[in-house]
Design a protein that fits this description.
With 71 residues, the protein is an all-alpha fold. It has four helices and no strands. Helix 3 (44-51) crosses helix 4.
Length: 71
């Protein structure tokens, strides 16, 4: 088992896809950045409808819980 784990890490297979690389992604990196750039107080329900995601998704993007802003 240890050999398999070491091999996985050496070949960089231990990383999970995130952001637009995720197979479940409904947004692109550019869209997430655009959402984050919207003025504070913009109606999250309307943003969610526009991007066809849930208001919770918008909240998570704005608050850097998902689609974390580049460092």
């Amino acid at each position: 088992h240890r050999d398999n784990m070491d091999d996985m890490v050496a070949k960089k297979r231990d990383r999970k896809a995130s952001g637009a690389q995720s197979g479940k992604a409904k947004l692109t990196d550019a869209e997430a950045c655009a959402i984050r750039a919207l003025p504070i107080g913009t109606n999250q329900q309307k943003i969610a409808q526009q991007y066809r995601v849930t208001p919770s998704t918008i909240w998570h993007i704005i608050n850097n819980r998902t689609w974390k802003a580049p460092a």
